[in-house]
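Appendix B, example 12.
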Amino acid sequence: MEALTPRQQAILSFMQKFLAKHAYWPSIRDIQAHFKFASTNAVHGHIQALERKGVLERVPGAARAYRIHAAKADPDGVVIRFEGPGDDAAEVDSLPVMGAIAAGFPDHTESSGVLGQLQVPVREGARRRPPQTFALRVRGDSMIDANIFDGDMVVIEPGQPKPGDIVAALIDGETTLKRLVRQGGKTFLKAENPAYPELYPVAELTVQGIARSVVRKI
């Protein structure tokens, strides 16, 4: 796939964050104002390039609505999907909600058992979630640059984590949602918010599950 230019990547990121904040896509003039383009023609050109490169797809019959193909948008990174209601959902999974997880500084919050059920759409042709999959409510803002916000529900699946995965982790007896990093022979947790420090374990770092998708009420 043809790589995105830095400006195209910035526009795509802005669109994702705008959607997460406002629950609708930005207009051409919203993008023009944010990037201080002289005219809307420049915005149209970048949007068309994103469509041509297979990253952005217009939703047929819907005004100012798109689908973002995350794997193409960031082929070298690890991203998680946004899950929400959609006409292409073939069925629904019912996942147990096991409490909350800190997306800030780690805390001692632990599961108190199943607190409820989360209905998550399953789109036609999508892979099946493992039976041990569960959901946690996010508390905090340390993952906002990964498009995970306070109050979101993250879907956690079992599995062998890879560097770059966003994980529910136990670090020195406290739980948190962070990105797993291995660098220079060390394994640590990284926030997606520059206001938070990297977390290095003193004695223990255990991954409890991998965040595969986000469910947000809009």
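The radius of gyration is 18 Å. The chain has two domains: 6-77, 89-215.
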